[in-house]
Amino acid sequence: MRALWGVSALALTVALGTVLAGWWTVPVIVAAWLWLGPANSRPIRRAMLGAALGWGVLLGWTALHGPIGPLARRAGGIFRLPGWGMVLVTLLFPAALAGLAAVGIGRRPAAAGRRGHDGGGW
Fold this sequence. Notes:
elongated
């Protein structure tokens, strides 16, 4: 249950950060989430899921306020994708950013130190 709350909080934070400052906040927010949050199992999966859900919230909000279907089909045509393919790519982008940030951060030094090594340079 705590994992669900953590992923939900990350999703809302990613959505808010994206609205306020742009897409580049996704890896920054994920890095802070991993650094400050409690150590958990599968941090990369949770980070990717939270980021994708955050952008899913934004897509849902956009769909409520405008015709997202025609836009997805038109933008998807640029990449030779159907409309649903463009939506999928849109959700995979923050997931990839989050996954790369999670891999880059790895385990926090405190958690790594308990396992017998210093946890890296920073």
